Prior knowledge:
The chain is mainly β. It contains one helix and 24 strands.
Amino acid sequence: MGSGEGWIPELYASVWVEDETGNHFPLTEIGNGNYLGTKLSVNSSLKYRLFVTTNSRKEYVSDYVELKATPPIDSITYGKSPQSDGLSIYMNTHDPANNTRYYQWTYQETWEYTAGYFSSLEIKGGRVVNQDENIYQCWNSRPSTEINISSTTQLTNDAIRNFELQFIPKGSQKISRRYCLDVQQRALSREAYDFWLQLKKTTESLGSLFDRLPSQVVGNLRSTETAQPVLGYFSGGTVSKQRIFIDFSDLPVEVLNTIPKFYPTDTIRLIDVPTRPNMNLISSFGTPFVQGYTTSYNSNCLD
């Protein structure tokens, strides 16, 4: 269920998959509205559908769908974007049997980065002590949010070449040290592709005078009791995966940020330390005795 603040997970629901011969495969709730089935005895020659009974006893069911076999990913490549000032990451795949035609990609991106300065000291309780944790080296991770789909129906060969999966602007924190993209590829039916294409046009193409008007997106899920519209699509099949790592030293020269970032610093005299709140420090200064410390009041520079 959606709201102005995002999606509300459906908790404590009964969820199961059923094949066309009547066999049931229950799914287990693993938290936050996610339901998982393991060691399912799936037969690729049969069709399957999804059942959901919510905690409030509302029932939903999908149409039967065929399981799609997904071809392997040929390669994930990257280079200077020809259209924008940044790095583009491309997908390449094909089906020699010309049976797939409709593709979808999701991914998880993870990147390593650092604070502006290395902090080995901190003020804690009015005293300078050694920093007891690593606040310099950091990692962040994020799933894909865009709808990434493509079709080869207008081509003779069932091959995707240089589909731009991800664009990273020049100088982005994501490519400041090391970047990882973990990609999942899925084959879609024509009906599933049409659903995702319709959803993509409705959700990602709004904002200008010439954009198409939003329309109701129709999937293959429906209520068993009412005419209530249901947003969603149930599909199944195999998944192909591939992961790529990009180090800063591997980046094309054109996407390197040659303008160094400015991180403002300040100083704290030794006699003023007892009056300062807890904070991170860069280093001490003064010889032969410590006279004070350098710091930054912008917390992002040190942590």
